[in-house]
Amino acid sequence: MMRRIIVGALFSLLAISSCSNKNSYAVVEDGNLRLMAIRTKKEGTLKVRIAFSKYDEGLNLERFATAMQYQVDSCFYVSHEGLKTYPLYVTPIANGLDKTFEYLLGFEKEALASGVLVFEDRHRSKKNIELTFK
């Protein structure tokens, strides 16, 4: 009986440890904006989610949604020692969530090794938001 318990506990620990996410991630909140990013298993790619808790008053929602869908390709870059490295591609991901935008970013492997991901919020707050991965 004791042997079954020990084997079951070891099996459970092995299953839990194999399911853990080994990808590094970063999360930053700035007012009503939350920016999240995770490195995917494919080297050089990031999955980024931008979520708003609410929209600013007076914001033209249709124009803003169009800008967030089609005009964000140069809003992301990696900063390292004062140099900006822009992504090779920015692919919007349709997620169906209100006030949330997702993107798949592709960088050269070397760019992500030691840099900080920066999002220039050109369409709303005009701030630069920096993400440092854990």
Describe it.
The chain is α+β, with helices and mostly antiparallel strands and 134 residues long. The chain has one domain: Immunoglobulin-like (Sandwich), CATH 2.60.40. 25% of the residues lie in helices and 37% in strands. It contains 3 helices and 9 strands; from the N terminus they run αβββαββββαββ. The strands form 2 sheets. Strands 1-2-3-7-6 form a 5-stranded antiparallel sheet, covered by helices on one side. It has a 4-stranded antiparallel sheet with strand order 5-4-8-9. β2 and β3 form a beta hairpin. The longest helix has 18 residues. It is globular. The N and C termini lie far apart (42 Å). About 9% of the residues have low confidence.
Keywords:
134 residues, alpha+beta, Immunoglobulin-like, 5-stranded antiparallel beta sheet, 4-stranded antiparallel beta sheet, globular
Please provide the count of β strands: 9
Largest sheet, spatial ordering of strands:
1-2-3-7-6
Q: Which regions contain 5 or more consecutive residues with pLDDT less than 50?
A: 10-21
Number of helical elements: 3
- The helicity comes to 25-40%
Summed up, the domain count is: 1
Terminal Cα separation, in Å? 42 Å
Per CATH, which architecture? Sandwich
Report the CATH C-level class: Mainly Beta
